[in-house]
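Operator note (shift B, R.M.): manual run for Probable GTP-binding protein EngB requested after the automated queue skipped it. Running by hand, logging everything below so the morning shift can see what happened. Input copied straight from the record, untouched. If output looks odd, do not overwrite the archive copy; leave it for review.
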Amino acid sequence: MEIKSAEFVMSNSDVAKCPKNLLPEYAFIGRSNVGKSSLINMLTNRKSLAKTSGRPGKTQLINHFLINKNWHLVDLPGYGYARVSKSSKKTFQKFITDYFNQREQLVSAFVLVDIRHKPQPIDLDFMAWMGENGIPFSIIFTKADKLKPQAILNHVADYSAVLLETWEAMPNYFITSSSKEVGKDQLLKYIHDLNEN
Ligand code: GTP
Ligand code: MG
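Run finished. Output pasted below as returned.
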């Protein structure tokens, strides 16, 4: 699929105020700094459509982007950022869980994990929560440019071995690098096919 247009629509912390139309949407979630916003820029061929930062905690709101005038990409804040206060963590959890539980337009979420790290409880817990709540998701391994090809295969195999301890099957997954534009065609094709169904 070719991205012909990508426009920022709105940011907010209340799912009730998100766009009311029924365009299909896809949301990116994962630990702070994993590369959610960078991936949106890579997919849309834009350097700073979504704001990125080397410091975790950059994205704080639900951000809607309209793609090709007929579907949405959604950039979400990251979880697991230690410097956020307890009360703002709670508010955050609430608006993110509300988003996933209430957003009927959501076709699929993408849970991003850094390919370099071993499976972390926070990500496994989040995926378990998605499963319990019936929210479809795929996994996106990010920052693949940081590892050699064999190490990528090993890390994915380790990840799936851990997931298969609790899941019946490995979820659909993608290997990406925003800096090297890896995984772009596969992800866009996946979204395109879902949009057609
Ligand atoms: P929050 O909004 O804070 O939750 O973070 P985020 O998940 O949106 O991460 P963001 O896209 O802001 O990227 C965080 C850092 O990782 C930035 O310094 C990016 O340049 C870097 N980064 C993102 N993707 C990649 C990648 O594919 N490869 C490499 N090497 N660095 C990346
Ligand atoms: Mg971000």
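Quick read of the result: The helical segments are 36-44, 86-102, 121-132, 149-163, 184-196. Residues 32-38, 52-54, 56-59, 77-78, 142-143, 145-146, 177-179 surround guanosine-5'-triphosphate (ligand 1) (CB under 6 Å).
Leaving this for review. - R.M.
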